[in-house]
Amino acid sequence: MTKRNVIICQDLEQDLTRVLQELRWDRLFLLTDETTHRLCQPLISGFSCMKGAHEIIIGAGDAHKELDTLAHVWMELSTHGASRHSLMVNLGGGMVTDLGGFAASTFKRGIPYINIPTTLLSMVDAAVGGKTGINFNGLKNEIGAFAPAQAVLLETEFLRTLDADNFFSGYAEMLKHGLISTKETLYELLAYDTDHIDYVQLKDMVRQSVEVKEHIVEIDPKEQGIRKALNLGHTFGHAFESWALKQQAPVLHGYAVAWGLICELYLSVVKLGFPKEVMRQVGQFVKENYGAFYFTCKEYPHLYELMKHDKKNTSGIINFTLLNNIGEIQLDQTADQETIYEVFDFYRECMGL
Ligand code: GLY
């Protein structure tokens, strides 16, 4: 993925037409889910550049990010004459771009694809950076490949119809990008009026946020080093997300990341002297906008166990990305059980639990 592949759209039709003209392909496929088929596909179906595209519609939601859905996409490609020179356009949130990217990158050993993300989370994270895949054996993104899109078209007009929960879910990844980049980026995010969304300012903040990710992915596309910075908040966050799922009370990914950020900033304070005031400001923002993930000390061993099985670990040692300060990243940090339990205590106190 190179910078020129991510396009902040001024006019989706013009930008998509240009991208489709630049690429060589024989047949065009459009992947949507039931939601984006209803809400977003009508916006692009009239574009003359999409004329003749065969639409493949899959079920919406993470439950459909699995092998049967993938097989269905392969089958549609196969029975509708896709060749190695066909092109797929993925129109949707992270589920569609992850699964569609993986379907494309494996069909006939790989056909090119384009992402048009429609949620904030997919615009600033999932659709950018070439990670594709599906859930398998109860594990998220267990099967997948690094396979960058030919282009990612960011049309922030789609965000006007996004519900508040999905807005904040994506916003958590933007906060993370703020924390790993600059004070200015972070403070603009913390000061942004989320009650009265200014879409012009949001578009610019999305651009800045994506640039943070693109810059890191350009240096380290396969997460050998600095790309691990993007895991800030995710070690605790994934444990919260998995535990919520086990309790049959799933939470949105970004909410789990927001709660995880509080934990990992506290760990950064304890281990690396991260400024307490910045942690307090981020904690306040998260508490006000995300509420709290509720757990008691009885859940500590379960959460700790989930963290020990995180796929980012090596040899069972829990791996964190932490910060010395805003933008000062420390990779491959660890913490023992006692410290992690202390973080849980802090989180509960901070959230008033
Ligand atoms: N979502 C983190 C990454 O793309 O590396």
Shape: globular
Distance between the termini: 43 Å
Note the main sheet: 6 strands, parallel
| Computed structural class | alpha/beta
Q: Percent helix among the residues?
A: 40-55%
Low-confidence stretches: none
Q: Can you tell me the CATH superfamily of the largest domain?
A: Dehydroquinate synthase-like - alpha domain
> What share of the residues does DSSP label as strand, in percent?
15-25%
CATH architecture of the largest domain: Up-down Bundle
Strand numbers in spatial order across the main sheet? 1-8-5-4-2-3
Q: H/E order of the elements?
A: EHEHHEHEHEHEEEHHHHHHHEEH
Q: What small molecules does the structure contain?
A: glycine
Average pLDDT figure: 96
Number of strands: 10
What is the CATH class of the largest domain? Answer: Mainly Alpha
Q: Could you explain the architecture of this structure?
A:
The protein is α/β, with parallel strands linked by helices. It folds into 2 domains: 3-161, Rossmann fold (3-Layer(aba) Sandwich), CATH 3.40.50.1970; 164-350, Dehydroquinate synthase-like, alpha domain (Up-down Bundle). Helix content is 49%, strand content 16%. It has 14 helices and 10 strands. Helix 6 runs parallel beside helix 7 and helix 6 runs parallel beside helix 9. The protein is globular and about 60 Å long. The N and C termini lie far apart (43 Å). Bound molecules: glycine. Residues 125, 129, 131, 223, 227, 230 line the site of glycine (GLY).
Layout of secondary structure:
Blueprint: E1 6-8, H1 12-22, E2 28-33, H2 34-39, H3 41-45, E3 54-58, H4 67-79, E4 87-92, H5 94-106, E5 113-117, H6 120-126, E6 131-136, E7 139-146, E8 151-154, H7 164-179, H8 183-191, H9 199-219, H10 234-246, H11 253-272, H12 276-290, H13 300-308, E9 320-325, E10 328-333, H14 337-350
Helix pairs in contact: 4-5, 5-6, 6-7, 6-9, 7-8, 7-11, 10-11, 10-13, 11-12, 11-14
Bound molecules: glycine.
Glycine binds at residues 125, 129, 131, 223, 227, 230.
